[in-house]
Amino acid sequence: MLSFPCRQNYVEVLLSIFTIILHHKSSRHTRLMAYNVNIMTMWKTVTYFLMFTDICGAGHWIGTDSSLTLTLLFYFPNGVWIGVPLLAMYHLWPSFTQGQNEKQGGKKDK
């Protein structure tokens, strides 16, 4: 039987493929779907990251005493899977708020 994180990965991949299909069909829902997939990816990784730290009392499960190994094999990869979705969400957000700025009489975002 598949574990819950494994099932989450399958759902994430399927939603990413669906987002790519929406993009190729030039759907107006592509950006919203991409934003939601990035939210899911980021928070799944944050949960995974916290689950294996001393914050949750499971730091001993990582199984290394070397700071270099811990940084290269745990902190850096998790940081990428948190940082890249955050960057994508940062770039997608203005496309959602552009209409709100126009309604309020504000300047258009570039």
Fold and architecture overview:
The protein is mostly helical. It has helices at 4-24, 30-51, 67-103. The chain crosses the membrane at residues 32-52, 72-93. This is EXPERA domain-containing protein. Keywords: Membrane, Transmembrane, Transmembrane helix.
Proportion of residues in β-strands: under 5%
Shape: elongated
Give the total of domains.
1
Low-confidence stretches: none
Supply Rg.
18 Å
Count of separate DSSP helical elements: 3
Structural class: mainly alpha
Please describe the structure with a list of short key phrases separated by commas or semicolons:
mainly alpha, single chain, elongated
What's the SSE blueprint?
Elements: H1 4-24, H2 30-51, H3 67-103
Helix pairs in contact: 1-2, 2-3
In short:
Keywords: Membrane, Transmembrane, Transmembrane helix. Helices cover 73% and strands 0% of the residues. By secondary structure, it is mainly alpha-helical.
